[in-house]
Specification:
Elements lengths: L1 H16 L3 H9 L2 H12 L2 E2 H7 L4 H13 L3 E6 L2 E6 L5 H37 L1
Antiparallel strand pairs: 1-3, 2-3
Length: 131
């Protein structure tokens, strides 16, 4: 029993403190507002104030969204005077796109295999009914 408790502590520690870049990116992109911010910044740099206005949000709320995007490396900010300007990060989404593509291919292959099995089952069923 003691081993299980120690194991649970270790697993919990891993869940709480290990955040690979993909986890940070997908967590950041899981929110519609943050995806909207990325879209907006794709058109050009913007201040946090202008983003907050565009998304009809408080400055505090927008700052929190931008911080999540910054932690994921998707956005960088620069403060000049009293204005904090946001722009897209330089790293892009290549790793995320590669992960999605690899898993898309895996699912596609599995669905093709399933289609073959279903076709074989239908063929066997029609052969039996013809007999």
């Amino acid at each position: 029993m003691r081993f299980l408790r120690e194991q649970a502590k270790t697993l919990n520690y891993m869940v709480q403190y290990i955040s690979p870049p993909l986890d940070l990116s997908f967590a950041a992109l899981s929110d519609a507002t943050r995806r909207g911010i990325i879209d907006q910044l794709g058109r050009g740099d913007a201040s946090i104030t202008s983003l907050a206005d565009k998304f009809q949000m408080t400055l505090t709320g927008m700052k929190k969204h931008v911080q999540v995007l910054e932690r994921a490396g998707l956005v960088v900010t620069q403060k000049v005077g009293r204005v904090r300007t946001c722009q897209l990060g330089k790293r892009g989404l290549k790793a995320e796109a590669a992960w999605i593509e690899a898993h898309r291919k895996l699912f596609e292959a599995r669905f093709e295999a399933l289609d073959e099995i279903i076709s074989e089952m239908k063929q066997e069923g029609s052969d039996e009914s013809a007999s």
